[in-house]
Every structure is written in structure tokens, then in C-alpha cells.
Amino acid sequence: MTTANFESLKAGDTIDGPAFAVSRESIRLFCDASLDYNPLHLDDNYMKGDFGKTNFGGIIMHGMNNFGLISRMLTDWALPAGAIHRRLETRWLKPVKPGDTIRPAGTVKAKQISAKSRWVLVDVAVQNQRGETVAAGEAMLEFPPNAKAG
Amino acid sequence: MAQAESSAATPFETDFWKDAKLRKVWDDIVPGEPRKTLPYKLTQEAIALYCRAVGETNPLYLDEAAAKAGPYGGLIAPPAIHILLMFACTPADDWMRSPGTVNAGQSWSYSIPARPGDTITLQARALDKFIKRERLFVVHDNVFFNQHGDVICSGRGQTIRPM
């Protein structure tokens, strides 16, 4: 894991996220926490049906659970250094199901200095236990010039 | 646009089928038209529940004394609390709750943190809709504000609408 220090960060540096065990209970808890009770996440009978050309075969995790895990990884990395999580863009590539273990990770892509601040762009991805990428995207973190670890 | 504040007095309807017939389908959604939204009082309990669901342990979100001594001078919510706010600030007949709505991707920009006790408001609309590979898409445009009118975060998302 690379230290969040603007001066020393370089393309290719990595950020590790926490492993997250997905279960019917974790999905149900996310329903309660997000108020998203879409039957995609609750109702196995409903999920036996087809969605266009897709059949999920059972309930799936909320895509935004991936988003929340990536955001957690970024803030845990950035906040102690006085850096700020400013943007996150994600898309979902594969469904995540009960029994899967997923883990987010980041790779520094670029640094940018603007008129008033300093920025780091990070490629992010979430992989499952088979090494398949289930979500991918890009994040932007601000390292204000006065940040303590900057 | 805003109605009565959503609160514990009006329990959240967790059966998304119940009001399904009241909701707009893809054909009815007019890009540019504001969505009906509800102000929502964000509580420390709701923040703690979100933290538990994704394993957030940062004291800035959970430990009042530590947060008070930290950079924000008090407890804040994690940036991704908009995941909750999206459903908390929209009424039961909003099309975000249509069963079978599939999230196809999101991007969010963060300005200032939400805090426990904030009354959050949402300005939201569909910005665009299109058809791709036999699927019906809507592009969402959302901005959350606190009670002072400050932007907390803004986001754009795409959903695939149920057929």
C-alpha cells in the first residue's frame, strides 16, 4: 500500500481495500441502510425471471455496495493525510451474489496541479474471489496544498 | 416541489411492488422535468447503520469526541451516504423504486460532508433517455443540499428501466 503523499505518489502506485464477504444477510443489511428494497436484492422467485437477455438466477448484491466499498477504501487512505475524496465514477461489470468475497483496489493513474489545488486520479476496481472484475471506475482525490502530509 | 418531511412518523414502504402502478415507466419519463422530492432529516443512527453495512469504522463518522477534535469539528457522514439519501429523499411513487430497475453506473462529485442533524433536500430529474441493445436507459441528474443551501454532492447515474 502506497502512502498518501502528493509529492511522492506516482503512476502505478497501489491502494488496497478491505475484503468484504457477501451474504444474504449483508445484502439485507444494505437494503436497510440504503432503503433500496428493490426485489433484485430480496426476492429469489422474482430473480428466476429474465431481464432482457440476462438471467441472474437468484438475488444479487446492490451495485452501490461496490461503490460504498470503493469509497471506504479511498477515504481510509486519504483522510489521515488530509486529502479529500472528491469524485467517484463506477460501472458494474458482473453481478455479485451471496457467497462471493469481493475486494476493492486502486492504482494511481495521474497527478494534476490546478490553479488552486492538487489532484490525484486513481483507477479503481472491485474483484471477486475468482479474480473477476465486478466493478471498475475512476476516482479523483484532492490534496490541498496545506494538507499535513502533502 | 417538496412535501412533508420524511421521518419516522411516516414509515418507509419497503414493499416496492405496492406502489408500482403509480410509477412512471420509461415512456412517461420526460427528460428535464423535475422529480418530486422530500426533505430528509439525516440522523446519527442512519449514518451508523450505513457504516455497518459497508464496514466503515472511521471515528469521524462514529465517535463524537474524536470527530469533534478532527478536521470537521464534529461528526460527518461518509461521502457515499448519498446511496441512502437517494431513496430517503424520493417518494414511494418515484420510478427509482420500480422493481427491476438495474443500476448501470454512477458518477458523484463531493463538495462538503453531510452531518447528522442536517435536513437534506434533493433536486433531481431525468436528463436524457435512450435505447441501447434493446434496453431502455434513463440518465439521472441529482444534487443534494443541506439546510443552508450548500451543495453536499452531485451525481449522474444511468439505470436500465424494467420492461
UniProtKB/TrEMBL annotation, chain A:
Biological process GO annotation list? fatty acid biosynthetic process
Query: By its UniProt entry, which InterPro entries does this protein fall under?
Result: HotDog_dom_sf (IPR029069), MaoC-like_dom (IPR002539), UPF0336/Enoyl-CoA_hydratase (IPR050965)
Cite a single GO MF annotation: transferase activity
Keywords, A to Z?
Answer: Transferase
Tell me the leader sequence span.
none
A Pfam family annotated for this chain is MaoC_dehydratas
> Boundaries of each MaoC-like domain copy?
15-126
- What protein name is recorded for this chain? Phosphate acetyltransferase
Organism expressing this protein natively: Bradyrhizobium pachyrhizi
